[in-house]
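Hello Y.,

Per our agreement to keep a running log of every chain we model this quarter, I'm adding this entry. I've kept the format consistent with earlier entries: sequence first, then predicted structure.
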Amino acid sequence: MAEEGLTLETEVQEILRAIEKEQNFLLSGGAGSGKTYSLVSVIRHVLEKNPTKYVACMTYTNAAVKEIEDRVNHKNLKVSTIHDFLWDSIKHFQKELKAAIIKLSNDSESKISVGEDPVAENYFDNLEDGIQYKEYLRLNEGIFSHNELLIVSNYLFENYSKLNDIVKDKYQYIFVDEYQDTDKVVVNILLDHFKKSNKRSIIGFFGDAMQSIYPDGIGNLDEYKNNPSYSLIEIKKLKNRRNPQKVIDLANRLRTDGIKQEPSNDKNAPNIVGGEVKEGNVLFIHSVHGDVTAVKQYLSKHYYWNFMKSEETKELNLTHNLIAEKAGFGSLMDIYDKDLILKYRDRIKAYIKKEDIPYDFSESTFGEVIKFLKEVKTGKELKKVNPTDSMQMFINDNPELYEFASDYNYSNLCKIYVDKDQLIDDKKQDENDENRKGSKRDNLIKHLFKIQNIIYLYINGRFNEFLRITDYKDKITCIQNKRTLKINIERLTDTENKTIEEIINIAHDTGICIIDDKLEEFKEKNEYLYNRIKDVAFDEFKKLYDYLEGKTPFSTQHKTKGTEFDNVLVILDNGGWNNYNFENLFLNTGRESVLSRTQKIFYVCCTRAKENLAVFYHNPSKEVIYIAEEWFGRDNVICI
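Predicted structure for the entry above:
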């Protein structure tokens, strides 16, 4: 059997032999080994040999779903995210869904609650649309989100054996890509609950334990590999098709699972030129000053890196917060991630719940609630009601904001949910990347994106696309309308010294981007948040737009997984992180959990490089420099 005119890889042949023996399997492969290539080969072969069978392929992101769909176009293949697969499997069993949520809500150890105790059996009988799965949680209305979907799915597969029969009967082959990022609940369903069914179905996992950088992922399948009752055979893929030799050597030092990669022997592999593996460059740059700009200037001058070409060169930071100031949207990030008045609200809310205070605050303002608690509490209890020192500093620095929050209805203030994902979710790695379905951005940010998209398309002369997305398009019935539109869009593109609210109003008043019901609802339900954002300069939002649309060289170290670039600069910021410690990484010290997380994120970052890798460490100790010389080579350790 040949795939795309090539002999099947040895690892794929091993997988196919395991399938013939009705064995579940795990393909383990390091970064750049071509695991997705192997997955696609397996899917194609299985469908060609079994044209009446059905294959389900689950993966972690919608971008990965699209990639696999583009590479395998077959009517018997269902590619989806893990959550979509689970919802598709259970959504038609509404009676069982309602019973499961009620049962779980009445279980004190369950993480599901509809806010009523106990929950009656007929609680969901009058739902017009039944139980639904959405991006947000309103369980009392029958709407659950990602975390609840996992819990409910696990309950149904565990307690209704027929559900296992139905899913296994529907899909004879179920493959999980990037298994290490999969919640253990999903693996539990596939390898434990599925055993309740006598139907035949092969389960295959593809991934790399060393790239398990998300806290909710299972990480590895060691407990299943070593247990004969699961019939799970591991197949290791050791070839590397992406990285130059020096990056491969560095990456092998970081692995802790026995997998040591070697360059591909495929002459068509990206890291092979003229039959030889690329050598590449690895640099460890350090400085007593934390000046990343100087590092970038050094790389541009001596190694010809072009940080203006974001599709070729990336700067990887640990968090979005570290990037925000550099990229120019620091104020917006602070609003969404560092509002300590809302943190104080959460402190008060948690205190009321913990103390079970028998008082109805639904008609009270936030200030009245605080005043009430302070009047009835003294000593240590009063200290728990007061803001922390950092909260008090924030309140002192923002007196008008605190006054506004104090006059806000407490119940409504408690309903305001603010998270940085609402601001920075769904980042593209470059301009050619596609947005995924189910973005967590809130409706204000989505509206601002629409405005800036309109501006961007007009400024760049993409007039047909511009006309398609502007709300003014239906009014263009004559030459005069076009002239009016030109005047209005020129006015809208002049964003200098204008606030976000001013641009929203100009876009609305000119008919270019109408304020819709979703934005009106956002303003009504999130007045506190809107009032903070509306006065921010729109030019700052444009910086955020450029960052999220992949027009800058910045990315977080987590978001870059699964991507690759010619040149990669990794910023090792060693300050203030509980979960990561880069000094411990080099010295192989510290808590095992922190060391493991740090090794994995560093491994993922380094293996993004197709040509050149540079690591910048601010003010390292002599011991760190000594290890760096061992890992990178003495000539490649540079002080600037």
